[in-house]
Amino acid sequence: MDLSAINPVLLIASLMVAATPLLLAAIGELVVEKAGVLNLGVEGMMIVGAISGFAISVESGSPMLGLIAAMIGGALLSLLFAFLTQFALANQVASGLALTLFGLGLSALMGQSYVGIKPPAMATLDIPVISDIPVIGPILFSHDPVLYIGIALCAGVWAFLKFSRGGLVLRAVGESHDAAHALGYNVIRVRILAIMFGGACAGLGGAYISLIRVPQWTEGMTAGIGWIALALVVFASWKPWRVLLGAYLFGGINVLQLNLQAAGIAIPVEYLAMSPYLITILVLVIMSADKSGAPASLGRTFHASQ
């Protein structure tokens, strides 16, 4: 066992990369759930975003076009969930599970011809002078643009929910859709927009995996990140900054266990592989004692005739 081979600077920089797809998916799902909708199809939207972004990036030669395509793909798939739950009034849990299964199958079909192909590389934002600062530069200022977008998105969602009129309407719909409807707000429109936002974020998170973190296409490569994102939102008490903390905690433990495996630590690989999930859930359960963030109408179907 050689722990000296683990570089702390690279470890911290890598955990930020590992946390980004989880952060993107979870912050999108947080907005969806704040609107009173429970979408269990995050994993399906992520994997469709992963193959959509990968395919467009390979065909066009532009990673940015691939990321945009991934957001569109995730949002379009989320519209299927929106139709089922907001117009057909189907059960949200069953519809979300069906969306995940559909997304996994669709992505496998779409990705058959892209196995073994390497996508164009995404440029990093190496800021002159700042990125050359020892320790701090490689950790904070030498990453791809999407990583910074994820952090900015978390801050933006927090500000939107806390300070804007739109955030107030969204929270009102999530707390009591009947009261929001009585006040003249279009509950279905608000929820559809929230669902599409969540789908776009999940698609972007999926594309981050296939284009940046692991630049290749492999069937089922999201590997349960969508389910972790769902759990993260609940255990973070629907608070954006706790979602950020949980995502970085998961990313850090995931990267650490990979480094420990490479260092040859005398712990079975299976225990190391499951440690990020166990520790993240344990810490977030401890943090989730405050239940005040749970939307009162979460998972409840709104009937427009009410």
TrEMBL record:
InterPro entries: ABC_transp_permease
GO MF, one annotated term: transmembrane transporter activity
Ranges annotated as spanning the membrane: 6-25, 37-58, 64-84, 96-115, 135-161, 192-214, 220-238, 245-265, 271-289
Topological category with respect to the lipid bilayer: Multi-pass membrane protein
Keyword field: Cell membrane, Membrane, Transmembrane, Transmembrane helix
Cellular compartment(s): Cell membrane
One GO CC term on file: plasma membrane
Protein name: Nucleoside ABC transporter membrane protein
